[in-house]
Amino acid sequence: MNIKNPLIILITLLAIFSVLLAVSEFPPYGMADNPVHNQVSKRYINSTLEDTGVFNMVTGTVLDYRAYDTMFETIVLFTATLA
Fold first, then answer.
1. Separation between Cα atoms, residue 74 and residue 80, nearest integer Å
2. CA 32 to CA 39: how far, in whole Å?
């Protein structure tokens, strides 16, 4: 028997256990006090029109707040398409 087989099984079981342990620590879905509901999302919702002048909140967020991130994502996708 190859020594790698038990090692691979042990590493796989450890990875599965780690993922299950991490998922068990997630906050319950749909609760109002989840960490995802913070001041950043409230600010985007309340001040997108004033900050960007755009009525569509998604367009204002993508083009004004996240323009550099979106530009680099587009470059990566374009480069991957060329390859």
1. 10
2. 13
Which residue do the tokens 């480069």 mark?
A: 79
The model's confidence at residue 16, banded by pLDDT at 50, 70 and 90, is very high
User: What stretches of 1-83 show up as alpha helix (H) in DSSP?
Assistant: 4-24, 39-52, 57-60, 67-82
Domain segments of the chain as ranges: 4-27+37-82
* Cα 53 from Cα 65, distance rounded (Å): 12
Q: What is the pLDDT of residues 17-42, one digit of tens each?
A: 999 999 998 888 877 777 777 788 88
How many whole angstroms separate alpha carbon 71 and alpha carbon 58? Answer: 16
